[in-house]
Amino acid sequence: MPDRRDLVPLWVIRSATALLAVLLGSIAWSGSVWIVLPVVVAAGAAVLPSVGLVTLSLLLLSIAYAVNVPAGSAWLLVFVAGLHAVFVLYLLLLHLPLRGWISAAALRQLALSFLRIQALAQPVAVLALLVGDAGSSLPVVVIGVAALLAWAVWLVAGRTRG
Question: What is the value of pTM for the model shown?
Answer without folding.
Answer: 0.77
